[in-house]
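Project outcomes to date are best conveyed with an example. Our students and postdoctoral researchers have been running inverse folding experiments weekly, and each run begins with a structure described purely in C-alpha cells. The record below, which covers 287 residues, was selected by the lab manager from last quarter's runs and is presented without edits.
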C-alpha cells in the first residue's frame, strides 16, 4: 500500500502540472479525483496501523473507528471535488472563452497516469480479497484508472477533431464517477455512526442459528452494529434450559460464539444467559 501511495502521489503532481501547462480541466478534475483517492489510501494505511493498537480503558473497543472518521472526511472531499469540477465544466461549456488546450501533452500525461494506476492495481489486487482496507484502496486506484481513460479519450478527440469542449465533457464524466462513490461511502459512514444493523447482516437468520443451538429456548434483546466496516459487534439475551445453567455454561457460550464467528463474521459477541423466569419479568425487551 505504501508503494501504491507513492505512485498515486507522483501521478497527482504530474497531473496538476499537466493541467496547468495544457489548460485541461479534465486533467485537473482527474487530479482532484486522485487527491481524494490518495487521502483514501493514506486513511486505509493509517487505519491498518491504528487498528492494530490494543484497546484501553478509554477506548474499550480499540481504535478501528479511526477508519470511519477518515472515510467521512474523504466522502466530503469527494463531494466538494465533484461540485467544483462540475461548475467549472459547465461554465466552460456555456462560455468556452479562449482557453488553449494542448492535446499532445494532455494525452502524454494521461497515458503516464493510466500506466501508473495499472501498476498500483497490480500491486493491490492480491491483497484485496482478504482485507476490507486493501479492497477499498484497490477500488480507489481502479477509479483513478477510469478517470485517466476519460482524459485520454478527450485528448484524442481534441487532437483528431479540434473539439476542445471534449475536455469539459470528460470533466463532467469524471465528476459523475465521483458522486456515486461519495454517496455510498457517506451512506456507510452514517450507518456506522448511527449504529444501524450492518447491511450484510440478517438478524432473523442469526436468531434462527442461535435457536438451533442445543439448550437454547429463546433469543431476545438482539443488537448488531459495526465499530468499522467488517468489525461487527453482537449482544443478545439467551433464554436457556435449566439443565444448562445447572451443568455449566462454558460449552454453550463457546458454541454460540463459534456460530457467530463462522457463519456471520462477528468479531465480538456478548451473551446474557438467563432462565425463562428471569426473561418473563424483564421490564423492557427488544426484538
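After processing, the design step wrote out the following sequence:
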Amino acid at each position: 500500500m505504501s508503494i501504491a501511495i507513492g505512485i498515486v502521489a507522483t501521478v497527482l503532481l504530474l497531473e496538476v502540472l499537466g493541467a496547468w501547462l495544457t489548460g485541461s480541466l479534465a486533467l485537473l478534475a482527474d487530479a482532484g479525483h486522485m487527491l481524494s483517492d490518495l487521502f483514501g489510501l493514506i486513511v486505509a494505511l493509517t487505519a491498518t496501523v491504528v487498528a492494530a493498537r490494543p484497546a484501553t480503558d478509554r477506548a474499550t473497543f480499540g481504535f478501528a473507528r479511526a477508519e470511519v472518521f477518515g472515510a467521512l472526511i474523504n466522502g466530503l472531499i469527494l463531494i466538494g471535488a465533484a461540485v467544483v469540477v462540475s461548475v467549472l465544466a459547465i461554465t466552460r461549456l456555456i462560455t468556452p472563452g479562449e482557453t488553449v488546450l494542448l492535446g499532445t501533452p494532455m494525452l502524454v500525461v494521461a497515458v503516464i497516469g493510466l500506466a501508473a494506476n495499472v501498476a498500483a492495481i497490480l500491486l493491490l489486487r492480491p491483497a484485496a480479497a482478504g482485507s476490507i482496507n486493501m479492497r477499498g484502496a484497490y477500488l480507489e486506484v481502479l477509479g483513478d484508472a477510469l478517470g485517466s481513460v476519460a482524459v485520454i479519450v478527450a485528448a484524442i478527440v481534441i487532437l483528431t477533431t479540434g473539439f476542445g469542449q471534449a475536455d469539459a465533457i470528460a470533466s463532467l464524466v469524471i465528476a459523475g464517477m465521483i458522486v456515486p462513490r461519495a454517496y455510498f461511502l457517506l451512506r456507510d459512514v452514517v450507518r456506522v455512526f448511527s449504529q444501524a444493523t450492518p447491511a450484510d447482516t440478517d438478524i432473523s437468520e442469526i436468531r434462527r442459528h442461535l435457536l438451533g443451538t442445543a439448550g437454547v429456548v429463546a433469543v431476545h434483546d438482539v443488537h448488531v452494529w459495526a465499530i468499522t466496516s467488517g468489525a461487527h459487534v453482537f449482544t443478545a439475551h439467551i433464554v436457556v434450559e435449566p439443565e444448562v445453567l445447572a451443568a455449566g455454561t462454558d460449552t454453550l457460550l463457546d458454541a454460540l460464539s463459534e456460530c457467530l464467528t463462522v457463519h456471520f463474521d462477528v468479531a465480538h459477541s456478548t451473551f446474557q444467559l438467563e432462565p425463562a423466569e428471569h426473561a418473563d419479568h424483564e421490564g423492557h425487551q427488544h426484538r
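Residues 203-280 form a domain with the Alpha-Beta Plaits fold (CATH 3.30.70.1350). The chain has a mean pLDDT of 82. The training component of this project remains on track.
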